[in-house]
Amino acid sequence: MSEKSEEQKPATKIRVIEDAEATGDTAAAYDYWRAGSGRKQVPGIIKCFGARPDFLRQVIQFSNAVHFSEGHLSRRHKEMIASHVSYLNHCPY
After folding, report:
1. Alpha carbon distances (Å) from 55 to 23, 24, 58
2. pTM reported for the whole predicted model
């Protein structure tokens, strides 16, 4: 068995639409996410919904309402938990 190169991306079953490939409604949905997040780079978890931009907008709205609103835990703590769970699950996106 050969070791994976640091540069090699893990294979996924979901077609991830990168920023450079995004057009039309997908590009608009990525821009919608950027506008709401204040970040420039769209994360993989968002890109994995790029094939369904109509659904992606709903996911973004749901995440903003549930995951990233203030409550018992701050947004920072929720993002740290989400990142750790993704790491534990070996999630490439």
Report:
1. 16, 14, 5
2. 0.68
Phi, psi of 40 (to 5 degrees): -95, -40
Select the more confidently predicted residue: 65 or 7: 65
CA angle 41, 47, 53 (to 5 degrees): 115
**Is the model's pLDDT at 80 over the cut of 50?**
yes
CA 88 to CA 37: how far, in whole Å? 25
Alpha carbon distance 55, 71 (integer Å): 25
63 vs 3: CA distance, rounded Å = 36
Stretch 28-51: mean pLDDT:
91
Decide if 36 contacts 51 (C-beta within 8 A). no
Residue 1: the pLDDT is 47
